[in-house]
Design brief:
Length: 198
Amino acid sequence: MPQGQPTTVPDDGLTTRQRRTQPVLAVHTGPGKGKSTAAFGLALRAWNQGWPIGVFQFVKSAKWKVGEEHALRVLGGTGEGGTVAWHKMGEGWSWVQRDITDSEEAAREGWEQVKRDLAAETYRFYVLDEFTYPLHWGWIDTDEVLAVLKDRPGNQHVVITGRNAPQPLVDAADLVTEMTKVKHPMDAGRKGQRGIEW
């Protein structure tokens, strides 16, 4: 197991073990590919630890089928690792057709469900996929989200994905990764393909 060395040791009175078991708020943002993919990779680690997992896909349609959903649902049903619940709140959208106002109410309802689940400690690991969009568009109040996440009980880890993460969310997170695009097949006119985009 790699042993990372922290650059500073906080004067918070906690032991190394106590600090190591604190819940993490992670944000995967930026214009590059791989934000959700990285979050689902973390979900695999959570599954391996036996943690209950809740995936909440904001904005994306229930018709959108991604490989990670199928794989995690199958793994969640094996009884070997953690359970997996998958929720889709969006009405559907694409980068080409951006009329997504129908998804606003669904996104708000999804956030209300996340709040209930956090309060009840339903899951140990949450993926709030594409959640930065309802925050960026003002559908869901960022300050409310930050307050709920700060006060979440127990040891619940949360990873939030999507472009344009609001700066207050970035500031509050424990781990922030910005995916940058260096090169993409779409630059050469190629569309998404099986096994790569879904």
